Amino acid sequence: MTTGAGTDRAVEAVFRIEAARIIAGTARIVRDVGIAEELAQDALVAALEQWPESGVPDNPGAWLMAVARRRAIDLVRRRESYARKLAEVGRVLEELPPPEPTADAGDPDRIDDDLLRLIFTACHPVLSTGARIALTLRLLGGLTTDEIARAFLTPEPTVAQRIVRAKRKLATAGVPFEVPYGQERAQRLTSVLEVIYLIFNEGYSATAGDDWLRPALCEDALRLGRVLAGLMPREPEVHGLVALLEIQASRTEARTGPSGEPVLLADQNRAHWNRLLIRRGFAALARAGEPGGVPGPYALQAAIAACHARARTWAETDWQRIALLYSALPPSPVVELNRAVAVSMAEGAAAGLEIVDVLAKEPALAAYHLLPSVRGDLLERLGRTDEARAEFRRAAALTRNEAERALLLRRAGA
Amino acid sequence: MPRFVSLIRVDENQPEGEPSPELMARMDVLIKEMTEAGAMLDTGGLAPMADSRRVRGNGGTVTVLDGPFAEAKEVVGGYMLIQAADLAEAVEWTRRFVEIHEDEWDISCEVRQIFGPSDAG
User: Fold this and answer.
1) What are the backbone dihedrals phi and psi of residue A99, each rounded to the nearest 5 degrees, phi first?
2) Which residues pair with B108 in a beta bridge?
3) How far is Cα A58 from Cα B95, in angstroms, rounded to an integer?
4) Residue A244: which H helix or E strand, with range?
5) Which among B1, B92, B118 has CB closest to A13?
């Protein structure tokens, strides 16, 4: 028993730590993530009422879980049409050992399985990408609707509605609360990884607004990635994604200048890169490399990020290797653009420009500000200043990020 | 999301000496749990003060002193580097760490936020 910590904030801290597991463990009983979330909130209210009096229990997670599950079972029992379910739940109950007063209560594997079920359910392809992101942040990231709305520059009612609709859709579509197996698991895992990646990217380089960085979202994505790596230790691409995010996040401090302006990789003060995150990224990358396996797209991107992390200076960057790694990625116009940059560093601006000029005809990149931005950079290096400035002006008109626009306009000599 | 360091202070001359195997096992479980929750960034125990050095800058002179240091009774014996939403959450993880110690332990942890350029405010 702990005393002196009976404040609401302490109770809420416990809840934040445990919420995803409680929702997951409850969802397995009621088979509905929306209802499970409400029951988890009920358990929080019970704790807020009781803990200030009684102190925080030694195993607060088990306490909250027990309350939420008890309510879940009551709810299932109250549904008459669930008569047969009742028998099933009754059996499950008898099999569940009561929470023990030690850490590691009961059956950690089963709880973790529930958590994995929750992740796969929140990222189910029946939902739109936006709904998957919102639901994942809400159920697993512990963000409030308001926080999600602010992070994604979306009005709060829109996000609230999106979450409500997503929960309803999961229920009406009869999405089973389970981790898929076999071929389907691989496909569904792709969706889970993509959701985490998109959350990180939204934080890493905000697509709109005045903020260059919304670090909080990066942290949320990293945490989700680390949780997933704990749950699926034998999936190389999970470790690949975590490696990529850890190494990218290591540059956070160096990516903005004193007044919040973006600082390009070439100009970043590498002493400000976070060595701990780099070390963690390398460890995850090592786990992503299956012996004899072909590295997946996240592991390849992490390997590229690792090349930058290894270089003590911009000049020491192994551009040959980076160009090679880009060649190994599934081809896309954006990947090709990045390869062009690496080739230009390894073999000269002219070689890079050849690749970029082919891409200029690519309709998919017509509104992509980085194409004129990169082209401007290559032209500048070749001494074709006027053409370069025109490209920077074009890029400035296309970007939705204010800080980036200012930088591009400066380079355009405007 | 801010980072916190939990400085684990113990009495170097405590009668119970080394942690019991049971405590070590409980620590393994907790550290695994914290790692998988994305909260544990790094943790470690520190060598005894007797095997440590103190490097001091004072009045323009740098001196290196060997341990043991007489004034130290309660010393930092280990640390946890925690990533958490706020101080309350870092305190809860630390509470769990303290809670798994046997009754004869007298252990205290200082939970302090780490300030880097991005942690201001």
Assistant:
1) -60, 130
2) B9
3) 9
4) helix A236-249
5) B92
Note whether B117 and A272 are within 8 A (CB).
yes
Q: Measure A51 CA to nearest chain B CA, in Å.
A: 14
Contact A60, A44 (CB under 8 A): no
B35 Cα to chain A: minimum distance (Å): 8
- Partner B contacted by A397 (CB < 8 A): no
- Residues β-bridged to residue B44: B79
Quick one: which of A39, A14, A10, A9 has its CA closest to A24?
A: A39
Residue of A63, A216, A47 lying closest to A141 (CA atoms):
A216
Determine the pLDDT at residue A260: 73
Q: Which of A78, A87, A81, A68 is nearest to A28 (CA)?
A: A68
pLDDT band at A93 (very low <50, low <70, confident <90, very high): low
**Is A14's CB within 8 Å of B81's CB?**
no
Only one residue has tokens 């074009």, namely: A394
Does B94 reach chain A within 8 Å, measured CB to CB? no
State residue A45 phi and psi, 5-degree precision.
-60, -40
Q: Tell me what percent of chain B is helix, strand and coil, each rounded to the nearest 5.
A: 30, 35, 35
Whether residue A123 contacts residue A112, with contact meaning beta carbons closer than 8 Å, is answered with no
Q: Which amino acid is it at B17?
A: G
Task: Please count the residues of chain B.
Answer: 121
Chain A closest-CA separation from residue B105 CA (Å): 15
Residues ≥6 apart with Cβ < 8 Å to B115: none
Verify whether the Cβ–Cβ distance B116 to A253 is below 8 Å.
yes
pLDDT digits 0-9 by tens, A182-232:
888 888 999 999 999 999 988 886 544 455 446 688 888 999 999 999 999
What type of residue sits at position A259? Answer: S
Residue A409: per-residue pLDDT: 94
Q: Which two tokens stand for residue A127?
A: 């939902």
pLDDT at A108 over 70: no
Give every CB contact of residue A24 below 8 A, 6+ residues apart in sequence.
A36, A111, A114, A115, A117, A118
Instruction: Give the span between the Cα atoms of A314 and A331, in whole angstroms.
Output: 26
Tens of pLDDT, residue by residue over A110-167, are 445 899 999 999 999 999 999 999 999 999 988 889 888 888 888 999 999 999 999 9
Stretch 167-226 of chain A: residues touching chain B, C-beta under 8 Å: 215-216, 219-220, 222-226
CB pair distance less than 8 Å for B36 and A219:
no
Compute the radius of gyration of chain A from its Cα atoms: 25
Residue A259 DSSP SS3: coil
Which of the 8 DSSP states describes residue A76?
Answer: H
